[in-house]
Specification:
single chain, about 220 residues, alpha+beta, two-stranded antiparallel ribbon, 9 strands, elongated
Amino acid sequence: MTGAPPGDPPPNAPTPGAPTPGIPAAGFSHLDAAGRAAMVDVGDKPVSRRRAEARGRLVMAPATLARVEAGGLPKGDAFATARVAGIQAAKRTDDLIPLCHGLALSAVTVAFAIRPPDAVEIVATVTTDARTGVEMEALTAVSVAGLTLYDMIKSVDRALTLTDIRLTAKDGGKSGPYRAPDPASAGPGADLGEDRGGAVGDQGEDDAGGDHAQR
């Protein structure tokens, strides 16, 4: 006689009371009830306008900051290169962060501001119309723009520090607007077109779908 003894459950039957795969664990949307990594199903969420702003700082010696502001770096225009890198990174966030959804971004803006005596502030804003937010895209843009600045400047200052990367503003979605309480910042949610004490380069890119719309 083959098979399970009479009265035993089928071999693949779930254990009574066991966690159900695919059901999020309480408090962590990217873990199922068994603690396994899981991509969030956003299919039932309504499409809405989403916007996120993130900021970070690259700290350096005051003499280095003066040289950066004057454009006197061996590798050329650090801000132009870092801006393009940040925009490109935002568009590729789902390739870098495993459980992020691929989104068709409406716009990505990366800006820089000189913060004497020793820092450059990096500000990224991302917008889209989607079922999930763009916080990770904004944070990725700041991170990669900051790393690119680091690469452009490191030959003249080995003590650079990329720090204070954080979400400063969010709009849209079920949780509603968010503004980070950060008195050291120039103001979460501020208009990136505004001259905020030495802003350098606030150009962005509109992307109404493009190569990542189907990712």
